[in-house]
Amino acid sequence: MHDPLYLTFVLLFGLAFGSFFNVVIYRLPNGMSLLRPPSHCPKCDNLIKSYDNIPILSFLILRGKCRHCKASISWRYPAVEALTGVLAVVAIYHFGFTIKGIEAALLSLLFVPIFFIDMEHWIIPDSLDLPWILVGLALAFVSGGFVGWKGALIGAVVGGGLFFLIMQLGKVAFKKEAMGFGDVKFAAMLGAFLGGWKLLLIILLASFLGSVVGVTLIISSNKKGKPTYVPFGPFLVIAALIAIYFGDSIIGAYLNLIRP
Ligand SMILES: [Zn+2]
Q1: How far, in Å, from the CA of 74 to the mean position of ligand 1?
Q2: pTM for this structure?
Q3: Closest by Cα among 234, 241, 149 to 198
Q4: CA 65 to ligand 1 centroid distance, Å
Q5: How far is the CA of 46 from the centre of ligand 1 (A)?
Q6: pLDDT in tens, 71-117
Q7: What b/e sequence results for 1-23 when a residue is b if at least 16 CB atoms lie within 10 Å of its CB, and e otherwise?
Q8: Cα(63) to centroid of ligand 1, in Å?
Q9: DSSP-based three-state secondary structure for 47
Q10: DSSP summary character for residue 127
Q11: 128 CA to middle of ligand 1, Å?
């Protein structure tokens, strides 16, 4: 699916979703309604007019400042919009308008609010993963997705079960929550969409990335004497994107390696 016109539509679709995700990222963890009140400047409370709410463009035109009070707008807003647009285009460019492409696009879109909310609040809201476990399983029943229904079922059970076990072990070993229930639901969702093999790859990659970043942060924070907590969700997101686009090649290369 390399038609520039189609891809432009996908890009605009992604940018619009990115704009909505900015609302989701800000409001969902704070228990606010996604619909009301309409977007307004947190500094001066002036409503943001639709012509000032165009993804990326408005940020550039307003030079990152509120039209009324000139308060700075966070770089996160255009970044979330651009990221969502690019992820949607990559999914359709790579897989086309197929079940796989729709699954990749859907996951990529959900990854954006999951990444930013977990990063800031250390939670993954239920609405971003719990119902999507069922959607992943349902899509697996339709042929042509990442995995058949058996693989999806195994992926969801193994993902959820394994993380639940790690969560319980963490509680016993560290006397505190080393891993939240959000990661359990999220792993089950990734398993439902991508199957057991890709899920294992995701867990390995995420653990590796997580320990590299974790150790780096611990070393650098010891100088300042502040304790650090690194949420696991963002690493799962990065690992899942790698698994979606390179998983088959990585798993294939590994199986070739261990084959006698
Ligand atoms: Zn303002």
Answers
A1: 12
A2: 0.91
A3: 241
A4: 8
A5: 6
A6: 999 999 999 999 999 999 999 999 999 999 999 999 999 999 999 99
A7: eeeeeebeebbebbbbbbbbbbb
A8: 13
A9: strand
A10: G
A11: 30
